[in-house]
Amino acid sequence: MWEGRALSVRRDVTALASTGLDVAELHAAAIALVDRVVPCELTCWASMDPDSGAISSMTSGANRIPQQYEPVLASCEYTPGEPHTFAALAQRGDTVAKLEDKRSTRLNEVWRPLGLSHELRALFWADDTCWGAAGIVRTSDFSERELEFLASVAPAIGAATRVAARTGSRTRRTGESAIVVVTKDGTIRAATAAAAQWRDELEEIAPGRFAVMLRAAAAGARSGTFKARVRDAHGGWILLEASELVSDEAGDAHGEAAVTISRATGPELIGLLLKAYGVTAREQDICHEVLAGQSTAEIAARLTISPYTVQDHLKSLFAKFDVRSRAELVAKLS
Questions:
Q1: What residues pair up with 263 in beta bridges, in sequence order?
Q2: pLDDT recorded at residue 251
Q3: pLDDT computed for residue 306 by the predictor
Q4: How many Å apart are CA 157 and CA 133, to the nearest integer?
Q5: Please, where in the chain does CATH 3.30.450.20 lie?
Q6: pTM
Q7: What's phi and psi for 161, nearest 5 deg?
Q8: For residues 48 and 132, is the Cβ–Cβ distance under 8 A?
């Protein structure tokens, strides 16, 4: 019975991947499919930046997590020592894991106050890259059958998420970069005028998203420089970068971080797109040379391969990106 359900969900998810849905739309549809087999009170699915492991988008199930708890959950994902963060699970190569560490901040400060006590997480892999993850929470424990079911369908969701990551904004949106200084709990201490525009844009995704992302960025900066590409409400990309501020004369930095918010342009998206289209390491080398305007002979000399090998790689790239020329390839990656 469970094997048949898993096969059915894998087929349905694979079919969804061919319909041109963006990541949020895909995850919303997949949540409904999974919930029929593994029901829960709350669930939140994330797409993840394949380079940094940071969360790029979040999609909730039918019941939304109360808004006041979202910033706490966001900061937990970047807090050292918090068990089973998405990034930590991805680093270990896990596919499913139950939260059993009673010291968890999200368990004690979010789930238990909401009357929930059991959390299961699943990661969505495709070609050794983690493209997303799901957190599923409920009052009762999860069975081994349910873990097996999620482990079985997760690769199909990962492959579909990778395909959905190719979907981009249909319009070229611009905007002035903004700098926001935030405390460790996400309180804004100072901001440039353009921050209001980015607040409105992030709030268009979901109410409270601006505060959630600022708190996540501030938490991430405490472990080093934070960088994440975040999906906007129109399928485009926003780039968030954060660094902890240096200490003052008294040696106290107050845990503040400077967060820069800007539009993610071609150079920041090339690596993501290459992975989303399943481009091999050597094909990536060829792509970068093409983007730099190098000829076939120049590429062959720089990479120490024959011109015929260059042409073979170009044919493969054209097929993957569904283009017929270098110019079309450059346009698709710009």
A1: 238
A2: 47
A3: 95
A4: 9
A5: 178-267
A6: 0.84
A7: -65, -40
A8: yes
Specify the CATH number of the domain 178-267: 3.30.450.20
Burial of 52 (0-12, 13-18, 19+ CB in 10 A): middle
228 φ, ψ to 5°? -150, 140
Low-confidence stretches of the chain (pLDDT beneath 70): 168-174, 247-254
Question: To which residue do tokens 């600022």 refer?
Answer: 214
Q: Are 130 and 152 in contact (CB under 8 A)?
A: no
Tens of pLDDT, residue by residue over 117-132, are: 999 999 999 988 999 9
3-state SS, one letter per residue, for the chain:
CHHHHHHHHHHHHHHHHCCCCCHHHHHHHHHHHHHCCCCCCEEEEEEECCCCCCEEEEEECCCCCCHHHHHHHHHHCCCCCCCCCHHHHHHHCCCEEECCCCCCHHHHHHHHHHCCCEEEEEEEEECCEEEEEEEEEECCCCCHHHHHHHHHHHHHHHHHHHHHCCCCCCCCCCCCCEEEEECCCCCEEEECCCHHHHHHHHHHHCCCHHHHHHHHHHHHHCCCCEEEEEECCCCCEEEEEEEECCCCCCCCCCCCEEEEEEECCHHHHHHHHHHHCCCCHHHHHHHHHHHCCCCHHHHHHHHCCCHHHHHHHHHHHHHHHCCCCHHHHHHHHC
Q: Are 180 and 195 contacting, i.e. CB atoms less than 8 angstroms apart? A: yes
| CATH number of the domain located at residue range(s) 2-164 in this protein | 3.30.450.40
Which residue in the block uniquely carries the two structure tokens 């938490």?
Answer: 219
Residues 285, 25: Cα–Cα separation, whole Å: 32
Polymer length in residues for the chain: 334
For 94, other C-beta atoms within 10 Å of its C-beta total 17
Give me the residues paired with residue 279 across strands: none
C-alpha 29/C-alpha 112 separation (Å) is: 28
Residue 242 φ then ψ, to 5°: -145, 140
CA–CA separation, 230 and 236 (whole Å):
8
Give the phi and the psi of residue 168 in degrees, each rounded to 5: -115, 175
For residue 237 the two structure tokens come to: 């990309």
Q: Assign a CATH topology to domain 279-333.
A: Arc Repressor Mutant, subunit A (1.10.10)
